[in-house]
Write a structure and sequence with these properties.
- By secondary structure, the chain is of the alpha+beta class.
- The chain has two domains: about 70 residues, Alpha-Beta Plaits, CATH 3.30.70.100; about 150 residues.
- It has nine helices and six strands, in the order E-H-E-E-H-E-H-H-H-H-H-H-H-E-E.
- The strands form two sheets. Strands 2-3-1-4 form a four-stranded antiparallel sheet. Strands 5-6 form a two-stranded antiparallel ribbon.
- The longest helix is centred in the C-terminal third of the chain and has 34 residues.
- The radius of gyration is 27 Å and the shape is elongated.
- The protein starts with a strand and ends in a 12-residue tail after the last strand.
């Protein structure tokens, strides 16, 4: 039996390999072919041993989403359209929110490098405002982390399963910057409480919330451009496939016969 599945969460060829490998290991699977471009997978398996639910579970266990796609290949004469519009809209929304909060985050973190209004200096400048300086950056990075939480969920899940990918690197890098930033805020508070101004000054310069925000925002820019490119490529491939002839002329018993090009010479549909 052959079944097509829609796969969610794949971003690179490594993801494709992980999904394909996980499904291929299942008992009863004859073949598993994953298509990164269309976010789909076709599995041929022995239905007396295996079922769709077990295949979907194996995909979920390695950190991706999956659902079966029921389609009648004998009736459909057109290749299903590869539609990434939902993914592009979601990515655009994430990118917009990230940039909205990233710009003030970077400005506050680096304001001393630019011409600065006196009001900004009075709010964030000096050791007495170090807590405000650090905590404001922390508050601004929270929305960026929230809208890009998929990097952390997917990245750490794959890391714990000993299958790290790019999301794992993003999650580790940005998490390290945020955790150290929180530690720095506590140290600033300790320094202010004990009159250790050198400690306050040191950790005021060691806040890395803007680094975490920059990592997540720039990666999201790349993901957005990738999603748009992927959609255009998918449409181009679909149009190219539609150029293929729908019928073919074959010679049988010295007679030319026009047949459906989707059928094999024995009359069965390809893929049956």
């Amino acid at each position: 039996m052959k079944t097509k599945f829609a796969i969610q969460g794949m971003t690179c060829s490594s993801c494709q390999t992980h999904v394909e490998r996980a499904v291929s290991k299942l008992e009863g699977v004859k073949s598993a072919n994953v298509n990164l471009l269309s976010n789909s997978m076709v599995v041929e398996y022995d239905e007396t041993i295996l079922n769709d639910d077990k295949i979907i579970k194996s995909v979920i266990d390695v950190g991706y989403g999956a659902s079966s796609v029921k389609e009648d290949t004998k009736v459909s004469k057109k290749e299903p359209k590869i539609d990434n519009q939902d993914s592009i809209k979601s990515m655009k929304k994430r990118l917009t929110i990230s940039i909205i909060f990233w710009i003030p985050l970077m400005y506050i973190a680096m304001y001393h490098m630019f011409p600065t209004p006196q009001a900004i200096e009075e709010i964030f400048g000096g050791a007495e405002n170090a807590i405000t300086f650090g905590f404001t950056q922390f508050l601004l990075v929270i929305p960026i982390v929230y809208v890009n939480q998929n990097y952390f969920i997917s990245g750490f899940k794959k890391l714990f399963k000993k299958m790290p990918n790019m999301d794992s690197l993003i999650a580790i890098g940005s998490s390290a910057a945020i955790v150290y930033g929180i530690y720095a805020i506590f140290m600033i508070g300790y320094g202010l409480g004990h009159g250790q101004m050198n400690l306050v000054h040191k950790f005021s310069m060691d806040l890395y919330f803007e680094s975490a925000g920059t990592i997540l925002t720039l990666i999201t820019v790349g993901k957005f451009l990738e999603a748009k490119s992927k959609g255009k490529t998918g449409d181009a491939i679909r149009k190219l496939m539609n150029l293929a002839p729908k019928t073919a002329i074959v010679l049988r018993n010295n007679q030319e016969i026009e047949i459906d090009a989707r059928r094999n010479f024995d009359g069965r549909y390809r893929g049956d």
